[in-house]
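Chapter summary example.
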Amino acid sequence: MSSKEKYMQEALKEAKKAEKKQEVPIGAVIVYNGKIIARGHNLREKKKNSLYHAEIVSIDKACKKQKNFRLEDCELYVTIEPCLMCAGAIIQSRIKKVYFGARDPKYGAVISSFNAFEIKSNHRVSFEEGILEKECSDLIKGFFKGLREKRNFKNN
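The structure predicted for these 156 residues follows.
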């Protein structure tokens, strides 16, 4: 198993924590010098706040740990392609590279809808997609399939 896969496995663990809380199962970890310094998963339902995406939660924790908003030498691993809000936070926090598992065809702001990382700014974020793509994709698809089945069961 490569180090990328190892870190994405950790992000998947976070996503599964979210799923147990009936949150959309997206997880993230931030790595600095080969060590995970922050973990996060979706908490929007629990916190009743649309800002609590996995990436935002992990960035907040990493900034506190580093005592700095600049995470210049950090890498973020996230199970699903970041949305526009998260892509903006990634740029603002100066994360150097993002690895994500599966694309998000509706809200993805790195490849799927457009590439927010290409905006003119003083910081460039590189990215790599497809790390444990099937596992990441299957987890979120299974979650939404389960929601649809529950909805259909209630309507019958």
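To summarize the output: The first helix runs from residue 3 to 20.
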